Amino acid sequence: MPSYELEYPNEPYSTVKRYNTRATYALETIHGIINSCPILHVSFHAPNSPFPVILPMIGKMGSFERPSADDLGDVLDLYLHGYVSSRIMNLTRDSDSDSSSGLPMSIAATHLDGLVLALTPNSHSYNYRSAVLFGHATLVTDPAEKVFAMELITNGVIADRWGHTRTPPNSSEMQSTSILRVSIKTGSAKIRTGMPHDDRSDMVDTELLQRVWTGVVPVYQTLGTPIPGPYNKLQNPPEYIHEYIADTNTDTKENAEKAAATEVEPPKKVRE
């Protein structure tokens, strides 16, 4: 881990302007939001589309060139997994031949941590953690780096899953799968925690205070009991799956409850 906290540079397109006290540019925070989000939304421009394209994809932050860079606070690339002939892969392939920088794209991730219920509808909000990355994608062509990224992404689904499956991928799987490496130019995150904030005039209205419940309903993902597949031969799920489920359920619940209890300086304007 770096001896000091690294931050992404502020660019006009990445700087948080509304409620900027909630913003952070710290790599560790941003990478943590990205890596803990099961679905990323990737946006890019397609030449023949009148609208920007946005796709749900699976991805993880990592560094093949610097294996020692295993801390979220390090400079990392984003690896995205997809089918070899998908539009995003073909566009990236074309971009590789036209430009040395790659296909420009934006990547977003969001966690919902709580429903913030206030005295008036306009003061309702969410507790949330959101992050956006901006970078250029190129296709991974080195077989070793490709396997590295596939392992990274697979273990992002369930920790240690790669080592408990048939690996390495066979030639057909390698040929049908493409991996994008997104070199990150910059990024930002925005986080809201705490309780509701209402107008001063409403907070001295005794009748309103006695009539309307205010507070936070924590929101968190819960992993359920594993259901065996039709050709499963194991009587019980392996211990590493049970451990991952238990750890994840504990962490997500604690994070949501902590978000409700952690008060940050409220914005000057209470309407959100």
Number of helices: 7
Query: What do we call the CATH topology?
Result: Pnp Oxidase, Chain A
Going by CATH, the homologous superfamily would be Electron Transport, Fmn-binding Protein, Chain A
Q: How many strands, which pairing sense, and closed or not: the largest β-sheet?
A: 6 strands, antiparallel, barrel
First-residue to last-residue Cα separation: 36 Å
Taking all Cα atoms into account, the compactness measure Rg is 22 Å
Structural domain tally: 1
Low-confidence stretches: none
Look at the structure and give the mean pLDDT: 93
The count of β-strands is 8
Identify the strand order in the major beta sheet: 2-3-4-7-6-5
Helix content: 25-40%
Q: What is the CATH architecture assignment?
A: Roll
The sequence of SSEs as H and E is: EHEEEHEEHHEHHEH
The CATH class assignment is: Mainly Beta
Shape: globular
Beta-strand share of residues: 25-35%
- In oligomeric terms, what are we looking at? single chain
Structural class: alpha+beta
Organism: Diplogelasinospora grovesii
Pfam family, one: Pyridox_ox_2
Region (Disordered): 249-272
Protein name: Flavin-nucleotide-binding protein
